[in-house]
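I can't quite decide. Please look over this sequence plus structure tokens:

:::
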Amino acid sequence: MKELSDVILDRIDAICDEADLLFEDEKSEEAIAKYNEALTLLPEPIEEYEPSAWLISSIGDVYFFDEEYEKALAQFEHAMGCIDSEDNPYLLLRAGQCHFELGQMQDAEDTMHEAYLIEGEEIFEEEDPKYWEFLKSKITIVD
């Protein structure tokens, strides 16, 4: 993993704080613009730098909560291609939820199952119960 200077990391954090506030205020386009601004601070290829996955997944979250599932899925899949993120249970869960909402049920089952195998039932605790109910109907849960 390539390292960034503390100055760059501090700037990214500050921009993301602004983006998070915009997202909380339901200003999606402005939030996405801020997350993209933070991404421009990463050298190419951005995927080799640790902040890339959480910046890209933050954009995915904005799209997810705006119910733009195709755009969200593209972001989560991109984030999974970043350094140390291939088996990130949060990214797998969100990708699975996007597949679910897009009617891609086999992909939804596969990715949510991967998230479950890594993190357990806890990964579903803060989520709409429909996702856990769906997965439970598809797999054998071992106590």
